Predict the structure.
Amino acid sequence: MSDDFFLNLALPHVRKLQPYTPGLQPKVQEWVKLNTNENPYPPSPRVQEAISRELGAGLRLYPDPRSTALREAVGKYHGLEADWVCIGNGSDDILNLLIRAFCGKGQAAAATFPSYSLYPVLVANANGEMINVEFGRDMRLDVEKLAAVDANLLFLTSPNAPTGVAFPNEEIEELCRVFPGVVVVDEAYADFAEENATVLLKRNRNLCVTRTFSKSYGLAGLRVGYLVGDPGLIEIVDRLRDSYNVNRLSQVGALAALNDREYFQETVAKIKATREKYRQYFDEKGWFTYPSQTNFLFTEPRNREGKKGKAVAQALYEFLTERRILVRYFPSHDLTSSFLRISVGSQPEMLTLAKTIDQWLNSA
Amino acid sequence: MSDDFFLNLALPHVRKLQPYTPGLQPKVQEWVKLNTNENPYPPSPRVQEAISRELGAGLRLYPDPRSTALREAVGKYHGLEADWVCIGNGSDDILNLLIRAFCGKGQAAAATFPSYSLYPVLVANANGEMINVEFGRDMRLDVEKLAAVDANLLFLTSPNAPTGVAFPNEEIEELCRVFPGVVVVDEAYADFAEENATVLLKRNRNLCVTRTFSKSYGLAGLRVGYLVGDPGLIEIVDRLRDSYNVNRLSQVGALAALNDREYFQETVAKIKATREKYRQYFDEKGWFTYPSQTNFLFTEPRNREGKKGKAVAQALYEFLTERRILVRYFPSHDLTSSFLRISVGSQPEMLTLAKTIDQWLNSA
């Protein structure tokens, strides 16, 4: 049999797929890890308690296929009934299901560019076409341009990744009014923002919102995310969802995190304070940084000569990596290649980062 | 907007989808639960230890996207390199990825019938056609008939569900020789069987095998399964796999279970002993039961008049359910409608079952 044996048997579009490249996950203790927007703080202590309790009760039985308790709690949190909620094995699971429902051969999905780099991968997996609507450097939402795309599904990451810029609810609602398909607002970072689109759900039926426990709740290791939207949409996503997509421990862990509002608010407040401090740090260096409503900063470094650009960003990225500080670099597009995306870490991590940047600026 | 708003936007095949119906998962303490082939015994105590350790280390960071340690351990267990292994969020995740790679519009998948009722659901989700190759009542493998189907992907559940019958390696190897596509042997129950197909992998490139931690390892609540097969196949499945499909706790829990061979062997031996005891119990009642190499029994009940058939199976199913004993009933096909599938429970559970069956036989 030839080396292409399996590729030749695979569906034509699968032969050409490129897998998504997640941010590096090195052995953590040796690295300052500011590359995948994880929370620098541990999750609520109640998570560990809830999971330990569930461990005692046993793992031999299948989980609740509908994550019922978590659906109810998420619904309540957003002032919605449980049938407005679907729980995913991370919000990536939800994004994948939405794409499989509304996008395939001959049926495109659309997204702004740049945004979450997983969308085009999931669309390609579904044999669909991805329509990228490019931002200008001002990162303003072009509602008219978006509304005109020929797609039934439109992703809007708000606040946006990798820029950190949030879009006002007013513009999102205008988009829902003029776009005839499903508008998915991916709010992975909304807990760090001024406002969010969940309040628009009841009066914009074609709007839905995805959320994750990976960032603001500090539970990236647990893989839980959710979709809130019209029950008619939830029902369709449930058709395609794996019956047991969320395991027992993740269900109880996420529920405990959701219910500890005080811990959540404290953690988010700390991260926002650190973010503003380091935004100012970059400002003082004269580095342009988009106003961030997330837990990361997208900044355009200048070298000691005051120069910016792709070569400069690349040089700083390499300098940091060599010193075991991981940040994220997106070199493949003009809008991103002169920037670095830096997750807001703990105070000591950010101090190490700042010292290393100063070193770089002082080096030959 | 109309009530069909989302359905009209969805892909045409999605409009017609019916979701998979998992076995009921009631509040367990009140029920004797013999309907979803869970393990009556808890997992190895090392699982709880490993998960507790991981909880201490923290959940704030993303899991290893490739489940590297688990891939290596699974490979070693089967005498294979790690690149022969892919880990899934349950083996359902793996089955779904295989179907998405090899089956879609105009490209069918095949399976024996009856077998795992999830396959046709996953195939419909992928907009593919499902070719069912029906068994006769003798449940013998018709290799020639299977080899002739026009599909690139063929599922063989061995030991079979819901019958419990295992297929000899000799026949499986013959099937691999004559079928030109990918042969997936779904070995969810192979740990309870006399032999398994993993020993055939190295000399049959088109063969791959799926396994789960949900049955023999008692970890249905954790959602971990895997695929072993040629690295060329693994690479394709990885293209479609969600980067972070298996969470941190599931990775370390499954690894701990896999490494506790002594506990595993004891548990499996106990279940097999109970199985044989209750197979004899059904034999003594004159109920036909397929020879099971799994952790369940597929038996054809007779009522007090010695009659069997759909009405009799249905009557016993309802009698048991009313008394809070859950078993699985598949009424929709002649080959299954006169049978009940009964998971092998603990000794006390099986005693309760037997007493209730005796009650039924003695009732008017």
In short: The mean pLDDT of chain A is 95. Chain A has two domains: 5-41+262-363, 45-260.
